[in-house]
What does this fold into?
Amino acid sequence: MTLVTLQRRAPVAPGAASCHLCQNALGGNFQDHLLVGTPGTAAVRAVICAQCGDCLAGLIDLCGSDLRILIKDDQPPIQPTDEDRAAPASELDQTRHRLTREADTLGRTAQSLRAEADKLGIVRDTENPHGRQPGGSGRAV
It folds into this structure.
């Protein structure tokens, strides 16, 4: 089985102008890389945009990292419309989209941190059920 590593927020690869998966233009100082091979010797196989990286990360979050994918496609390919072929989104739209993705990522991070804080609160409460400070008598002076 081939090992594919998703390297998030990697420095811009020279000559990479568009996402290998969705063909959207790449911008900014960072992008995601798909590395193929064993760790330490893996090579960049594809450069992808942060949105495609988010999709892959979400799939791994959903299914776990030991993942095999089988693709079944009996439908004819969808042909792009004239609207789809229109000029790339303006810089403002791209920035808005990037900020939305970052906000989503921050939201997920905040949720994880809250869950960890709740776990720590439960541990602290079981270690010190009466709220007394260690080394003290627990009486206010």
The CA atoms of residues 38 and 87 lie 39 Å apart.
